[in-house]
Amino acid sequence: MDFQLMLESLPKLLNGMLLTFKLVALSMILGMILAIPLALLRVSRPILLRGPAYGYIFFFRGTPLLVQIFLIYYGFSQFEAVRESILWPVLSEPYWCAIIAFTLNTSAYTAEVFRGAIQAVALGQIEAGLSMGMPRFHLFRRIVGPQAARLALQGYGNEVILLVKSSSLASTVTLLEITGMTRNIIADTFMPIELFALAAAIYLLLIFIITRLFMLVEHWLSAHMRPPKDLEHVAE
Amino acid sequence: MVDLYGFGGTLAAGAWMTIKLALASLIFGLFLGLIGAGAKLSRFFLLRTIADIGTTVVRGVPELVLVLAVYFGGTVVINGLAAQIGYSGYIEINAFGAGVLAIGAAFGAYATEVFRGAILAIPKGQVEAARALGMPSFLIFRRIVLPQVWRYALPSLGNLFLILQKNTALVSVTGLSELMRNTIVAVGYTRKPFTFYLVAALIYLGFTAITMIGNQFLERWASRGVKEA
């Protein structure tokens, strides 16, 4: 093991980590914005709403992310109309193509997590809300939404971890995030073992932090399910 | 039909390679998963610790990094070993083997947890009854535990296999002529990226659909001894 090389490569890899973080954070937020309406369409009754949502989710969960990235980054350039449109500055940029691919991909997985959580909210509560004359939107915001959010938390945390791992595919479209940077340094030094070990350690650390953050949020969101502080010894 | 510019055969050959890669990785991964579960449930602290570290690392590292590390790292290790014993030539590592190792390991790490849960889900009394009848441990595992493990584990294993199938696309970075690699080659010749990547996506989607249907059949088969509610 060449520890000197590992130490020298660390700043570059931390730079790569910054890009990984940007990719993940942005697609996480955009994916969430897409996933909420997608999950609602998926649980709605009319087949014209449910069908397309199901098709979208099936496509993005049923094909490799690598194909999706290539379809967006290389695929769209096949059409002259796209190359001449105002969208081209965005679609010719690997950074944005990766963001688009990750966003669409994660929104499909997240929508399934949310769907499960929405359907897990006790039916009696929805009936109670309806019988009190709550409008549907109100019902979602006050009764279903908050409970579904807590139920979805664990599944969503897993999805974020998968997204961090998926972000390594950005290296296939020339982006220098952790994996891309690692491959770059290996091309120069041909020391794959040292550098992949270092990259793996960085990913493990990132995922460890994310796991901890989600545990913290879960703890915070389930305050009402814990006994009050002065009664904790009774519960045990 | 879509015009494939004579590359239909190339894609079909790639799809066949993807199927072989997926099945070989599945077998290796199931094997690893069973061993891992055995280690995690063992009495020996050392075995448990090794299994814990192994699954944590493999699950926390991107599959693409696993594939690259096994392929390029493996080349360095094997050539280093060969040099030690006095062999001076360059050994190129088999891309298929490296793919099976990496994709199978990723499957195995998750399967370890699945098998562990499934073994724990089997009522203890059954194993105790078998032991009381004087069955040796291995026979208990083969006759009592394993047939039931499938029933508990199949739904999760089915999902893991769906993930594995998609992960095989990552092996294209080693140059193995599976579906993704051959699609990239076809794009290089025809300059029709959208057409070909979409066709590849649809082939993968077909694999997914077939596996989903297969999973349902297998689950029904594994539960054939159980009354349905």
List the main descriptive attributes of the protein structure presented here.
heterodimer, A: 236 residues, mainly alpha, 0% strand, B: 229 residues, 8 helices, flat
Estimate the mean pLDDT confidence of chain A. Answer: 92
Structural class of chain A: mainly alpha
Low-confidence stretches of chain B: none
Percentage of β-strand residues of chain B: under 5%
Largest β sheet strand count, sense and barrel closure of chain B: none
Tally of separate helices of chain B: 8
Number of strands of chain B: 0
Q: Fraction of residues of chain A in helices? A: over 70%
End-to-end span of chain A in angstroms? 49 Å
Describe the overall structure.
- The complex is a heterodimer of chains A (236) and B (229).
- Chain A is mainly α and 236 residues long.
- Chain A has helices at 3-43, 47-62, 65-73, 80-83, 88-91, 94-120, 123-131, 136-166, 178-189, 192-221, 232-235.
- In chain A, α2 (47-62) crosses α6 (94-120) and α6 (94-120) packs across α8 (136-166).
- Chain B is mostly helical and 229 residues long.
- Chain B is built from eight helices and no strands.
- Chain B has helices at 8-40, 45-60, 63-84, 95-121, 124-132, 137-167, 179-190, 193-222.
- The mean pLDDT of chain B is 93.
- At the A-B interface, α2, α3, α8, α9 and α10 of A face α2, α3, α6, α7 and α8 of B.
Task: Present the secondary structure layout.
The complex is a heterodimer of chains A (236) and B (229).
Chain A: H1 3-43, H2 47-62, H3 65-73, H4 80-83, H5 88-91, H6 94-120, H7 123-131, H8 136-166, H9 178-189, H10 192-221, H11 232-235
Helix pairs in contact in A: 1-2, 1-6, 1-9, 1-10, 2-6, 3-6, 6-8, 7-8, 8-10, 9-10
Chain B: H1 8-40, H2 45-60, H3 63-84, H4 95-121, H5 124-132, H6 137-167, H7 179-190, H8 193-222
